[in-house]
Design goal:
A hairpin with a 3-residue loop joins β9 and β10. It contains 20 helices and 32 strands. The N and C termini lie far apart (81 Å). The radius of gyration is 31 Å and the shape is globular. The strands form 8 sheets. The protein has an 8-stranded mixed beta sheet with strand order 15-19-20-27-24-23-21-22, sandwiched between helices. A 5-stranded mixed beta sheet has the order 2-1-5-3-4. It is an alpha+beta fold.
Length: 665
């Protein structure tokens, strides 16, 4: 008698199934509704195809659309395969390479047939329609295991040189799997996949754009076309995503930065920002705000060098782990002759600092520190440089030169939990002042790391305890752990902000580090008279000023709170007879501390209103002959339809209240 397989389900029940049974068979045995809804299966923790037979007694959970994160990854992977199949159906001779799922969709890298131009936006409508045809055909997706020789032979016979090259380089002991779409199209893939193309919603995807790419990401290799799409579980999700993209385009900080005359970027300084007066005013207000917060939190501000000897970075561990992202500088006078190398082979090397941590340790090490002095909180508005690839740069969001609201807390082990708890509360006040909600995540030890497991155990638990003591280790704060995502020297807490259109931004962080004090020989004298290592807490709230300003611009769609607005009010005249009164109003507003400008141009008032609205000025004070005679102003507040006429002194009081930073109100 054949022994039945025991399949354990999440509710604790056990189903006995015949050998060769699949998760799809279990779903059907439970009920037709589940059989229809099931997309894939988690078997002993591994996500698998529904139709892949069980190997032995197993634990099973079925994945449906309710398991949104897993379901989205599955459907996006399948949309990518359908995209490749559609392209090859429409354009025989197209070579396909790879097509992964992404955070909001999928892409596939392809090479157009010989003699044809690379694919363009004009090709996308026909490809989309072919994809829908494949989805509606409900083609079964079937997994097979092939020998390496058979697979390479298949790809070479079909002219798929990229696939053949990849198959040859896969590890010898790796099982090579392919998936058939129906019986007429094949791709090499680890899977898993949905049971059939019909499980996809033909109305829930859209091809978005094309871009150039290189085979295996190397510009020395063949150039390919990358076709991007967005894919969702249903049309409602797609429509919501497209609406978010429209909103994001309106809020793009690069577009608003030009309209508001805040900053610009240009090739002469790749990845570095040219701040204009109005943009730098925002910076200065943020810097003043953060200084008040740091002063109130017991931080002492320092300033450290931009360039440090490479040996310091070797000792800290950054040279080995981070050198490819550092700008290195020869410590040598360059050769000025017409011939010969610019730098000799004997040159010593220095580097622009990519982070402030080692320099802060050097400040801490000056003199003898007692346990009575701890905790020591050192803060710096520290300018750093990182050698990001040109293609990765993105406005203010990803730059090469940036300034952090950086600080390091040197404390005893007994002080760690309390210091981290205080930081959690400080970060909470800051993010609420800017109107953000947030979630807190704990990123734990990566595979490649410095330090002992015992130290990592201790550091991770300290961070857990601190968040719990702050009352934030709850669903309300989105508390969860992110295994393997810590830095190479320390676990970290991350603050993920949610903006006005639902996007999340990882901004603040605090890391509990025992590695760097050891590597750089930092110590304090304990109560016992012996030397001890401090724990070093790395922390930031804004992250970088550049990126935080970009996030603020997009969060507020340029309509910054009055206290942050570079120009808080404009006094605009209707007729030239009011010019003198406008000048008096400007002088009184300036005396009250309002950042104000006058607009006395010989233009119609509607033109002035429109122009200053585009510049996102919070308040427009309109004055004409009547206002001049009565000592009033007509106040137009950005975003409000109605204007209010009030005495000038009343308007000044109203503007002053709105222009007060939240920590001073």
């Amino acid at each position: 008698m054949t022994e039945l397989l025991k399949i354990s389900l999440p509710d604790g029940s056990v189903r006995e199934m015949q050998p060769g049974a699949t998760p799809a068979d279990v779903a059907a045995a439970i009920g037709p509704g589940l059989a229809k809804a099931a997309l894939a299966a988690r078997v002993d923790g591994e996500v698998r195809d529904l139709n892949r037979p069980f190997d032995c007694d197993s634990e099973l959970s079925l994945i449906t659309a309710r398991d949104e994160a897993e379901a989205l990854e599955l459907v996006r992977h399948d949309y990518a395969h359908v995209l490749a199949e559609a392209i090859q159906a429409l354009h025989p001779g197209t070579q396909i390479t790879f097509g992964p799922a992404t955070d909001d969709g999928f892409y596939y890298d392809v090479k157009a047939p010989e003699g044809r131009e690379p694919f363009s936006m004009d090709d996308l409508p026909a490809i989309e329609e072919k994809m829908r045809e494949i989805i509606r055909a409900d083609k079964p997706l079937k997994r097979e295991v092939w020998s390496r020789e058979a697979l390479i032979e298949r790809w070479e016979s079909e002219g798929e040189t990229f696939k053949a090259e990849w198959a040859k380089e896969l590890p010898e002991d790796e099982e090579l799997t392919v998936y058939w779409s129906g019986g007429d199209w094949l791709d090499m893939c680890r899977g898993p996949h949905l049971p059939s193309t019909g499980k996809l919603d033909p109305a829930a995807f859209k091809l978005m754009r094309v871009a150039g790419a290189y085979w295996r990401g190397d510009q020395k290799n063949a150039q390919l076309t990358r076709i991007y799409g967005t894919g969702w579980l249903n049309k409602k999700q797609l429509d919501a995503h497209l609406h978010r993209l429209e909103e994001a385009a309106k809020r793009d900080h690069r577009k608003l930065g030009r309209e508001m005359d805040l900053f610009h970027l240009q090739e002469e300084a790749h990845g570095s920002v040219f701040w204009h007066p109005k943009g730098y005013r925002i910076w200065r207000e943020l810097e003043a705000y953060m200084r008040r917060k740091m002063d109130g939190g017991g931080y002492r501000e320092i300033k450290t060098p931009q360039v440090m000897d490479a040996r310091q970075w070797e000792q800290s561990g950054h040279w080995g782990k981070y050198r490819e992202n550092m700008f290195v500088i020869p410590d040598e006078v360059p050769n000025t002759a017409d011939e010969g190398a610019l730098v000799s082979d004997e040159a010593e090397w220095m580097a622009l600092k990519p982070m402030n941590c080692p320099a802060h340790v050097l400040v801490f090490k000056q003199g003898i520190t007692s346990y009575r002095d701890l905790p020591i909180r050192l803060g710096e508005m520290g300018c750093c440089h990182r050698n990001e690839p040109h293609g990765a740069l993105h406005g203010l969001m990803r730059v090469r030169q940036f300034t952090q609201d950086d600080a390091h807390i040197f404390c005893t082990e007994a002080q760690v939990v309390e210091e981290v708890r205080k930081f959690c509360e400080l970060a909470d006040t800051v993010y609420k002042d800017f109107g953000f909600t947030y979630e807190i995540k704990l990123a734990t030890r990566p595979e490649q790391r410095f330090g002992s497991d015992a130290d990592w155990d201790k550091a991770e638990q300290e961070l857990r305890d601190a968040v719990a003591n702050a009352g934030m280790a709850t669903d309300e704060f989105g508390w969860e752990e992110l295994p393997g995502e810590g830095a190479f020297y320390a676990p970290k807490l991350e603050w993920h902000l949610t903006d006005a259109i639902g996007r999340t931004w990882q901004v603040g962080t605090i890391q509990s580090d025992r590695v760097l004090p050891e590597r750089l020989d930092a110590s304090y004298v304990g109560e016992d008279g012996d030397k001890h290592r401090p724990v070093m807490l790395h922390r930031a709230i804004f992250g970088s000023y550049e990126r935080f300003i970009g996030i603020l611009i997009e969060h507020y769609a340029g309509r910054l709170p009055s206290w942050l607005a570079p120009v808080q009010a404009v006094v605009a005249t209707i007729v030239s007879d009011a010019d003198d009164y406008a000048g008096e109003a400007v002088a009184k507003l300036q005396a009250a501390g309002i950042r104000v400008e006058a607009d006395l141009r010989n233009e119609k008032i509607n033109y002035k209103v429109r122009e200053h609205s585009l510049a996102k000025v919070p308040h427009l004070l309109v004055v004409g002959k009547r206002e001049a005679e009565e000592g009033t102003v007509a106040v137009r507040t950005l975003g409000e339809k109605e204007q209010r006429v009030m005495p000038l002194d009343e308007a000044i009081a109203m503007l002053t209240a709105g222009a007060t930073p939240p920590d001073l109100g």
